[in-house]
Amino acid sequence: MRIKPIRSEADYRASLKRIESLMDAPSGSAREDELDVLGTLVEKYEEDHYPVCPPDPIDAIKFRMDQEGLTRSNLIPLIGSRSKVSEVLNRRRRLNLRMIRSLNRRLRIPAEVLIGGE
Predict the structure, then answer these.
(1) With contact defined as beta carbons under 8 Å apart, do 107 and 64 qualify?
(2) 3-state secondary structure string, 90-101?
(3) Residue 61 CA neighbour count, 13 Å, CB half
(4) DSSP characters for 29-93?
(5) Is the pLDDT reported for residue 22 higher than 80?
(6) Measured distance between the N- and C-terminal CA atoms of the chain, rounded to whole angstroms
């Protein structure tokens, strides 16, 4: 096992290739240990070089609506009137704290997602 830090894209690609070859490593083996260490190094490299941005709040609401088969009318109790729902989904009105709490509780969208990006 010869493991070194991942400092470049070439190191990253080589590490991914090595991880692929180790996927069938027997439990408790040196190969499994190598897989574990390489996985940690790759995870850190990806966090630093490929950060995942939180989703846009409105996109998150629309995604959850699609997942649960909800219509705009279903959002009226959570957001307010039909016109408020339309304004929010068309980005003409910001979410307020009451709306964020309701959407978080009913649609299980993390509050951090609903707060961010506005």
Answers:
(1) yes
(2) CCCCCCCHHHHH
(3) 28
(4) SHHHHHHHHHHHHHHHHHHHHSPPPPPPHHHHHHHHHHHHT--GGGGHHHH-SHHHHHHHHTTSS
(5) yes
(6) 48
8 A C-beta contact, residue 95 and residue 114: yes
How far from 65 is each of 12, 59, 61, CA to CA, in Å?
Answer: 37, 10, 6
User: Which CATH number applies to 57-115?
Assistant: 1.10.260.40
Distance in angstroms (rounded) separating the CA atoms of residues 104 and 60: 11
The residues, ordered by sequence, that sit 6+ positions from 23 with a Cβ below 8 Å of its Cβ are: 35
CB atoms within 10 A of CB 79: 23
Residue with structure tokens 């957001």? 79
pLDDT tens digits, 102-115: 999 999 999 999 99
- Reading the block at residue 91, the tokens are 């980005």
Model confidence, pTM: 0.62
